[in-house]
Amino acid sequence: MRSMALKADYWIDFCKDVFSKDIALPATDATNAHYGGLDIVGEHIYFLTADEDPWKYAGKRVAGDKDEKNGVWHIKCNGCAHCVDLHSEGGDDNLRQA
What we know:
By secondary structure, the chain is of the alpha+beta class.
């Protein structure tokens, strides 16, 4: 649940206020072209997606057809969330499965 007023312009202005008026604007297309977008090629790259993590949309959530061939791996942790491992010393079976 997020206010409809929190659009891209809001965050750009926020970053300018916090960091600098001279901050570069996001260059999503250039970044995707440089790093491969969803078709990432590399070695030993692992993406862990916790299905209860609100940050999951900032990462790669599903494996692509060529990922394993390209050295990219996707691990999904059911029942996991951002910082869930900091809640108790008892551990969590869901974290162990990842």
